[in-house]
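Morning F.,

Quick status update on the modeling queue. The single chain you submitted on Monday has been processed. Sequence for confirmation:
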Amino acid sequence: MKREYSSEENSSNTWGNCSSDKSKMWAAVEKEDELFGLLGYTVKPSEMAEVAEKIQQIEMAMWNAPEDGFPEFAADTIHYNPSDISSWLESMRSGIFSLPEFDSSVDPFLEYPTTENSSSSVNISHQMAVDLDFGSDLIAIPGKAIYPVDQSPEKAHQPPAKKVKTLSPPPPPSLGVGDSVGGFAPPRSLLVDSEENGIRLVYTLMACAEAVQQEDLKLAEALVNNIAVLAVSQAGAMRKVALYFTEALDRRIHKASTNLQELSINYKLQSHFYDACPYLKFAHFTANQAILEAFGGKKHVHVIDFSINQGMQWPLLLQALATIPTGAPTFRLTGIGTPEQSDTLKEVGLNLSQFSKQMNVPFDYRKIVVNSLADLDATMLDIKEGETIAVNSIFDLHQMLAKPGAIDKVLNLILQLKPQILTVVEQDASHNGNFFYDRFTSALHYYSALFDSLESGGGSSDEDKAMSELYLGQQICNVVACEGPDRVERHETLVQWRNRFSSAGFDPVHLGSNVHKQAMMILAMSGGNGYTVDESYGCLMLGWQNRPLIATSAWKMSQ
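Structure tokens below.
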């Protein structure tokens, strides 16, 4: 997948190649020394290359260990992390191995640069830095993070569990909202064990989130740099997710501004997301089927769409209304948007009006511009006597949780309208808790599943995938980097929404077999294997690999 990146940022905020400049090399060494210090080690900058070389020798020897292992590592021997890591490594190496002086330039397992002033020592120190042990019982983020095995004769004796690859990573995916992550420069050569590093990557992300919650920003910043080094050893969804979360963490640590324009929905990106995967299609088709069934036998119907966006949902309903044997009802559509969308709302109305004429459906369109759904008033909606009302909300209501009382005001407005049906589609996730660490953990798993489903393909173009990743990346940035009213991506679980609607005076409407058939048809059209549709208390949930990601529910006023 190709993506263009801005080159206008200064070098401290972009990915860079490993420099041969000595001052930059020693700056990187000093940075690694700082990371060791944070973790309790004492390593002089002048010893960094030597320490890394010793670790490299010991690790390689361990790979080629005999079947009976090394007797020096007896079961009752205790090894610990000393403060003087250089001396400890030297005693360990001399006590266990009898190795000649190590010459990395001729070693067949390594592909270090051999040019003068090469940055090999810096690269090895990066490898040392990333080998921090945060545990081993957490699985890696979903994704195809495996490099192809090198079958060249000179490397045929290399153990299959380890892979050596010269990495020249591209720039990280940018959210298009500011500086790139942390100003770090990944090494050119890394000894890659993608599965092991994948586990370390997850643990380092979690450690960074915990440091942020505890306001230990010095440790958090060091871990952010470490995450970037670990991420380049991965491939596919795993690397992309890690880099987006790294960017968001970096923004939070440095309190980088994220203005409203950066967080507003980019509708061009959303249209690519619509084409790349079935999530929005699932939302539109299932909501439309529920509305169509609620309108059965009615002559005058009125849909109030809380965020009409580009109007992609409504041609489908117009087509369905046109096929009613007794004739199409009069269809009124009220589209709601922000002042920035005013021109788009007008264009959507014109396009839908033309389409309705082709379908022979009597159609009336009206736009309403407000800053927030909480600013809506029933008198603004021009409800006419005798018309049947449906209220539609696709990924809108969770944003009302950012301001106290806003969601209650919106639900009270809906009750005043007395709709025949309220259709709601929301993310099924827990991104609105009180504790940052818990929100981060939930978001990491949630967006890992979304990115993994995008990576599966399903016939979508590279451009659609790339734009969809940016679309999701904006959400990640908001969930992780923002707080207060600026954090609008406050997704909650289906159970939480059910409790909220029930408390507000709504009863659930069971989504019938026809809605389920619509959902299954969408999945068949998408061509992706791994999507699942499940029913819960009359609601439908679309997931990836049995993990629910979005949920469609329908409601009516309590009797």
